[in-house]
Amino acid sequence: MADYIELKGSTIQYLDSDPANPIAGQVWYNSTTKILKGTIAGGAASGTWSSGGNVNTARRLQGSAGTQTANLMFGGTPTIASTEKYNGTSWTEVNDLNTGRRANQGFGLQGAAILAGGGPPGVAITESFNGTSWSEINDLNTARGEAGSVGLLTAGLVSGGAPGSATTEAFNGTSFSEVNDLNEGRQNFGMFGTSTSAIVAGGEAGTTADVESWNGTSWTEIAELNTARDRAGGAGSSNSEGIVFGGTTDGGSTPVAITETWNGSAWTEIADLATSRYGASGTSGGTASPAAIASSGGSPVSAATEEFTAPEFVTKTFDVS
């Protein structure tokens, strides 16, 4: 049998305490506790939710853009124009949308965001945020609300929407153009990734567990969620890593706290949200899933914000099993 040093090119260290900053693949024997330990890569599967700052105006089915520590939230139910910025600690109200709406789609970063569509009824109106105020720009080709969206200011994607639409449009920084449709029309789903690498998970028509992956050209059906749901939030960096959280499982207004992580081949249930909710906003700028956010949403509507973080590495104790 090969020795560890032959397999990994390093020895098992003999230490009187655990190392302060271990690296993935490092193995050591703690002579004080008499325990053999090692470090493996962390990531979304080992992530947990913690409390962040409350929003000023509680809402659901709002649009969002940005990252966990620089987030933008706008519109929502009841139909409002309110916009707020998050700095990783607290929310601050800034200039309103020109057209108040709910069930709208947002993508981009906090200082360079796009809001497209919304309702009711479904509208095609699109606005751009420059860090201070909103300006109307070229509309969507197909008016709709309750769609999904990902991307940045110069490369966005809007897909699906009410009523059960499969339409997908790509944004190039100036205008929208229609690209290949979803295989299954739906609305109110979780979505994450970028304009060339995205996931659509769950949604309506009829609460579903179906998932599709976007490669920049077309959609492909892949492994289903463990829990069928609609009105979930999503966050992730590509079609190979992300999370879907909250939503409803009864096609109605009963919120859940369930969180699932995607590793490119399968979904795994992990730590739940502290507050069950649906219609919460996440991150849509291609943010890595180990640093996500869930803001407001729910029934009754909650002002709570939760932050999802995951360690880069996880220390494991070896035993005979």
Look at the structure and give the CATH class of the largest domain: Mainly Beta
- List the total number of helices: 1
User: The biggest beta sheet, please?
Assistant: 4 strands, mixed
Helical residue percent?
A: under 10%
Count of strand segments: 27
Tell me the overall shape: globular
What CATH calls the topology of the largest domain is Neuraminidase
Distance between the termini: 19 Å
Q: Structurally, how many domains make up the residues?
A: 2
CATH homologous superfamily of the largest domain, by name? Answer: Kelch-type beta propeller
From the helix content, strand content and strand pairing, which structural class follows? mainly beta
What CATH architecture of the largest domain do you see? 6 Propeller
Mean pLDDT: 89
The share of residues in extended strands comes to 35-45%
Q: What is the chain-wise order of helices and strands? A: HEEEEEEEEEEEEEEEEEEEEEEEEEEE
Strand order within the widest sheet?
Answer: 1-2-3-27
Radius of gyration, whole Å: 21 Å
The poorly predicted ranges are none
Characteristics:
single chain, 321 residues, mainly beta, Neuraminidase, 2 domains, 4-stranded mixed beta sheet, 4-stranded antiparallel beta sheet, 1 helix
Give a description of the structure.
This protein has one helix at residues 4-8; strands at residues 13-15, 27-30, 35-41, 48-51, 63-66, 71-74, 83-86, 91-94, 105-109, 112-118, 123-129, 134-137, 148-152, 155-159, 168-171, 176-179, 190-193, 198-201, 211-214, 219-222, 233-238, 241-245, 259-262, 267-270, 291-295, 305-309, 313-317. It contains one helix and 27 strands. The mean pLDDT is 89. With 321 residues, it is mainly β. It starts with a helix and ends with a strand. The protein has two domains: 4-41, no CATH class; 44-309, Neuraminidase (6 Propeller), CATH 2.120.10. Helices cover 2% and strands 39% of the residues. The strands form seven sheets. Strands 1-2-3-27 form a four-stranded mixed β-sheet, with no helix packed on it.
